[in-house]
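User: quick one, fold this
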Amino acid sequence: MSTELEFTDEQLLRLDIVEEAARQFLNTVAETDDTVWDLDDVWDLIYEASDRLTKRGRRVRIPTHVTTPDGKEYITDWYGEDEHADVDAK
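Assistant:
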């Protein structure tokens, strides 16, 4: 019997903070305050920035659902810690 993995309230709050920061960035560079950004666009930006930062040796604190190549699943607070796993923070 498998157990559904769930983010904690603290992790959900962190995800909300990261999403809002990405939306603010998009509004700033697009010079708009009224755009409702598609969640895919927001997360594309977050993943791109996170990948660039981790490739440069920075740790990125975004709670992430991880699936390892052998199918094990877990949640971590740090994006990209397991370079061979599939990650999803949404």
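User: anything notable?
Assistant: Residues 9-29 form the longest helix (21 residues).
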